[in-house]
Design goal:
68 residues; mainly alpha
């Protein structure tokens, strides 16, 4: 299974996401360990945490964004 499909199955990349060729190349360049780490991290974040990031994280000024 490819990296994109693994990330889709884990809910990190939404199904039907419009990934550019550059996006696909970056995702496909990730090692198995890197993809597994992303999946592991995502599984530990609560739905409330994800909701906060999506709803208003940018209102507090510059910050490191976590995209899942």
């Amino acid at each position: 299974m490819g990296n994109i499909q693994r990330l889709m199955d884990a809910g990190i990349v939404p199904g039907g996401a419009a990934l550019s060729q550059a996006d696909q190349d970056i995702i496909n360049s990730l090692t198995d360990e890197e993809v597994s780490a992303l999946i592991s991290i995502r599984s530990k974040l609560t739905p409330e945490f994800i909701q906060k990031l999506q709803a208003g994280g940018a209102q507090r000024g510059p910050a490191l964004g976590i995209v899942f």
